[in-house]
Amino acid sequence: MEALKIIISGLLNALFSMAIAPLIEGIMRKLTARIQSRQGPPVFQPYYDLMKLFIKEDIESGDYPLMQRAAAHLAFASALTVTAFLPLGFGTGFSKFGDVIVLIYLLTFCGVCALLAGLAAGSTYSLLGISREMMMMIPLEPILAVALIAGALNSKSFEIATVLNGSVYNSTAFPVSAIIMLIIMLLSIQAFTQRVPFDISEAETEIMDGPLVEYSGPKLALFRYSRMIRLVIYSAIFVHLFVPWGNNLIFPLGFLVFWAKVLLFTVIITVIAATHARYRIDQAIKYFAIMLGVSFIALLLAAIGY
Amino acid sequence: MSLLSKIKETWICLKAGKVTLPYPAKPQPAPERFRGRPIFDASKCIGCAGCANNCPAREILVFDVCQEIRILKYLGRRCTYCGRCADLCPEKAITMSKDYETATNNIADLQQRLELFMSTCQRCGRCFKEPTPLEQLKLKGYRFDDLENDRWIFKSKSYFDQFKVTDDIHIELD
Amino acid sequence: MFRKLFLKFFPRSLWVYHANSGGCNGCDIEVLNVLTPYYDAERFGIKLVASPRHADVMLCQGPAMRSTAAALKRAYEAMPSPKIVFAIGSCACGGGIWHDTYNVIGPVEKIIPVNFYIPGCPPRPEAIIYGVALAMGLVDKKVLPSSLKQEELPIPRYHPEDLEMQGDMLVYKKLEKI
């Protein structure tokens, strides 16, 4: 019985995030359009986009078609697995069966799948895109790891449910490390979700859509879907870690408060994305090197109890 | 500092509201003196073929069925809406309308075809003294040969035959 | 099973690939004007994508040139079906003013099949939006071929073999008009 409840809540998590991720992306596009003084697409537009992509013909091209297929399916599957692990307001889900290391691993794996996709295509543009993405991933993924581990150090356990409950504020003295990590995560959330100042690797008209150049039809729909779900995942992790107050109320209230905070956070991401220009890769790497240095200082402070 | 300027930029754009024109829902008239699709008026045309002579894209074609009947055909495909035909027409039979909504899925929809009756001289019964302007036009090399298939003799073909510049590909001169 | 349901939403989200095969860039600029806030094309769900493999609609402008004909055909074949091709501007519809120059093969339809034509030199952005709305089924066509005559004449043609004797009169058996 317990097993059945856990499996159902994990499945509900995954299905709910699949249903709501295109809506959040639609709200983002409409808000971007209004900031640019134009009318913009209807709010349900990403649903139409995904539906249209699923009925297109599937052309397998590039050097390694098997890796192409595998990369698309793995990217989508790893994004959905992460949503099964997170507490998204439906109960605990699978969060008793893993720790934060699994989360970090799965999220990095999702990024690696984009690299595999670019390698499978083998054209000049995709190789250029994945080299830029590799350069971006190296200073970027440790920042999320440092935030989660600082929370784990403060609450003395690696379990997802305890770490993701605002554990960064649980330190013995005044939580300096929490404030530093809050500022750093706010400054680098655009790169995790691949939105404008830092969407250097993919979805870019300079290098013809980067790693996704040779994808068409259903596989492209899987990649776009995994990108939308990653937006929801990163917002959910941020909200759980840094603004957890009100998430643990009983079922309807806690659920609504949580999703309202996630929506507010995506509005902030959109406003920053609509008013900035894209950075070059060397500017982005310098920026993230500084962020990484400061986050290691925060990790040290968390280790000694601040 | 730059964050403040971004917020100010957002505020200015939001205050401007929505500037999109609701175009297919509401009609949008073209400005004054806009040159849209040319309309040929058959009741005023005298069949001088001056428009055909001057069209830079060779879009107006003329064919003599017999001494009294002349067919003038305007294919809309290559027209650049320059207005030279309208400027030149002595009877003002061509007007550049303000119509720009000319998208279609069949290119033959843009054709306009006029059949004109040429009157004859009361004394000798012929239309014009030779060399008639039509003969002169034939010398310039754009007369229709086969009206149904849109085939016509084209002067530049002699250029190709003479100098053999395009040996490698087969160009169909339509 | 879901195919019919998804096909209903196909005209609401068209992704566009822009291919210029040798034109003067006038129609280029008008197409980019359609994507600006004033004549917003994104409200119909149209997005500009950078790779023909992601696109449903190909906007061609410029005549088919000898140097870019092979590239245009490759871009058309790289698009997954179902696909639509628009020919924008006089050059793509019929060769334009350059139809008889040394490097031009002709209109774009000599190389790839075209579904919709938008004539103009360059067509106004509203005309391009009108063409897109026509493809989506929102408006009706406004042009038809016209054929006008000045006078309807029965001009008789006289052939010697149609003459026959009736008594002492020569009578024509048939009188036809052209």
N-to-C SSE string of chain C, H for helix and E for strand: HEHEEEHEHEEHEEE
Ends distance of chain B? 64 Å
Largest sheet of chain C: 5 strands, parallel
**Order of neighbouring strands in the sheet with most strands of chain C:** 2-1-3-5-7
Number of strand elements of chain C: 10
Rg on CA atoms of chain C, Å: 25 Å
CATH topology of the domain at 29-148 in chain B: Alpha-Beta Plaits
Question: Could you tell me the strand content of chain B as a percent range?
Answer: 15-25%
Question: How many H/I helical runs of chain C?
Answer: 5
Terminal residue distance of chain C: 59 Å
Oligomer: heterotrimer
Helical stretch count of chain B?
5
SSE ordering of chain B: HEHEEHEEHEEH
Strand order, sheet with most strands of chain B: 2-3-5
Amount of helix of chain B: 10-25%
Give me the secondary-structure topology.
The complex is a heterotrimer of chains A (306), B (174) and C (178).
Chain A: H1 2-35, H2 45-54, H3 65-85, H4 100-121, H5 124-155, H6 160-163, H7 176-192, H8 218-242, H9 251-275, H10 281-303
Helix pairs in contact in A: 1-3, 1-8, 1-9, 2-8, 3-4, 3-8, 4-5, 5-7, 5-10, 7-8, 7-10, 8-9
Chain B: H1 2-15, E1 38-40, H2 50-54, E2 60-64, E3 69-74, H3 84-88, E4 94-96, E5 112-117, H4 133-140, E6 144-146, E7 151-152, H5 156-163
Antiparallel strand pairs in B: 1-4, 2-3, 3-5, 6-7
Chain C: H1 3-8, E1 15-20, H2 26-34, E2 47-48, E3 57-61, E4 64-65, H3 69-78, E5 84-88, H4 90-94, E6 104-106, E7 116-118, H5 125-136, E8 146-149, E9 163-166, E10 169-172
Parallel strand pairs in C: 1-2, 1-3, 3-5, 5-7
Antiparallel strand pairs in C: 4-6, 9-10
Helix pairs in contact in C: 2-5
Can you describe this structure?
The complex is a heterotrimer of chains A (306), B (174) and C (178). Chain A has one domain (2-303). Helices cover 70% and strands 0% of the residues of chain A. Chain A contains ten helices and no strands. In chain A, α8 (218-242) packs across α9. With 174 residues, chain B is α+β, with helices and mostly antiparallel strands. Chain B has a domain at 29-148: 2-Layer Sandwich (Alpha-Beta Plaits), CATH 3.30.70. Chain B has helices spanning 2-15, 50-54, 84-88, 133-140, 156-163, and strands spanning 38-40, 60-64, 69-74, 94-96, 112-117, 144-146, 151-152. Chain C has a single domain (2-136), classed as Rossmann fold (3-Layer(aba) Sandwich), CATH 3.40.50. Helix content of chain C is 24%, strand content 21%. Chain C is built from five helices and ten strands. Chain C has a five-stranded parallel β-sheet, sandwiched between helices. A two-stranded antiparallel ribbon of chain C has the order 4-6. In chain C, α2 (26-34) packs across α5 (125-136). Chains in contact: A-B, A-C, B-C. Chains B and C meet through β5 of B and α4, β7, α5 and β8 of C.
